[in-house]
Amino acid sequence: xxxxxxxxxxxxxxxxxRGIYDVSxxxxxxLISVNHESQKVLSGExxxxxxxxxxxxxxxxxxxxxxxGVRLVSRxxxxxxxxxEEMILSALLPNQEIxxxxxxxxxxKYRNQDLGYIDWQVQPGAEDWLDKASRTINNDHxxxxxxxxxxxxxxxxxIKTRLxxxxxxxxxxxxxxxxxxxxxxxxxxxxxxxxxxxIYTAMQSEDGIISVLKRLIELNPDDLETQNQLAxxxxxxxKLKEAIIExxxxxxxxxxxxxxxxxxRLGYLYTKIGRVEKAIFFYLKAVELDKKDANLYYNLSYLxxxxxxxxxxxxxxxxxxxxxxxxxxxxxxxxxxxxxxxxLKKAKEYLSEVLKEKPKSFEALLLMAQVLEKRGEKExxxxxxxxxxxxxxxxxxxxxxxxxxxxxxxxxxASLNYLKTYLKSHPKDFAVHEIxxxxxxxxxxxxxxxxxxxxxxxxxxxxxxxxYYIFDHLAAKGDYEGVIRIMEKGLExxxxxxxFKMYLALASLKTGEGLKKAxxxLSEVLKETPKSLEALLLMAQVLEKLGEKGxxxxxxxxxxxxxxxxxxxxxxxxxxxxxxxxxxASLNYLKTYLKLHPKDVAAHEIxxxxxxxxxxxxxxxxxxxxxxxxxxxxxxxxYYIFDHLAAKGDYKDIIRIMEKGLExxxxxTDVRGYLVLA
Length: 678
What we know:
alpha+beta; four-stranded mixed β-sheet; elongated; 678 residues; 34 helices
């Protein structure tokens, strides 16, 4: 008996040890209560739950004794809590957000050993999303809910249908179209395509409309109305060749009496793509059905003209006009076409007929203006422009054109009125200011011409012409400071303009200030144009005022190399040489000068002095005689003459000369004394 008890105790101990320390633990299943209904979930299976499900883990089945050491683990989900109590699942979800879709991997572990796993997927149903959307008042929020639901449940028909309805009610075409396109790809259906057509029409998506129409025709090839609609939209989007194919496809399936508008369309479209012969073919077909449509004849006339068949062109043109003698619109069309053909005479006749019938026809007046302008009939053109202005007083183009016409025909006052009106709305129109400037000049309105010249250089500082007028005006007034201001601005815009440098130099010279600036400007001019006499002469004045006699002499020599007979410069060089003590050189220049100006007293005085300094008594005496001849009242030369003649004992000549001297200077006691002595 004792032996049996010992054996039983040993066996029980061995079984307990084996249950706790078995070397190969095994997981069988988890028994879970979901809303009070038990579910057995095996390892690797997926458990799908709703966030509002009431859940409790009833049992973890393993080959271990009891559950000692066995646990459930999930990284972001406290699954272990469900072993202890039944809970609503949403209480354990992150942030308790029931409208997210969750996927948790729940590991079954024995100590740190993985025995298996179960995937838990927790997500709301379609009815939850739909219920939430129905309870949401804000349109954008409701739409966001449905879009989110579609992301989670992309294949759910109820949600997709509800979202489509929402997009349609809110006119969210860009979101609705892709969904319907996806449905149409999966199952081509006329109802879906019609919906798509409506949506693309609302979106004004021409490519979308074309695509749907083509698919509708594929579904129903006998639908002529849809094919016509496709042709029209292709035409409207500029896909003319594709439109032609559709229209021609329709023709063969229409009764002859219904073909006229399609002949017209095809004629027009072939014209647009440059297939003239095909266009003529279809217009002729149209004429067979409607011989009284003048437009068909106009079109045929135009097309025959394009391919050089002038006879036929004239025939159809005549037919068109004869059909509607009172058709002013037709005449306008014909006149416009004749203008393009440069048949201005005939165009003028038709336009005259229109204006006789409708004197206020704006279109006819504009066309007539074109004709008269091209024909150069300026007086008639002025009258037409005036009629246009009476209908449309604020027409700026016509106001401008009329101003130019009056200017060209010499009516300056009228031109000025029109152009000044135009400038009120276009104050920066350079071309108009140029004309106004010229008008003021021709009217000798110096003040206004000057004002316009100022406007012109403000608008276009690089435009040269106005600066000349401004200079002349300011120089005439002696406003050389004004010249300096203007020319400095002019040189900023036109740094290579030599004339402006000259003007600036002259103004600086005249004001007596800025002589160094004047010299700099003239140096630049002479560097560019070294043979400019005008610049050299001006430089001479500047150098003279600066007192730079050495440079002045060089400048004079450059002038004489270009203009050897410049008398003023010859004289000035002679004076410079005299002042520098170069008597021989001075004498040469002054003698040359005196050949041209034999009565120039100043030159003779210098020559007289030179001869005296050279002790050339004979020539000095001769010059003294010239001086008393030229200026009898000048006393100085008489002294030299008396001394010279007295030294020779020639008292007779002294008496003769001194008598003349007393006639000119009766109160001169020295002259009288010389006479008494002689």
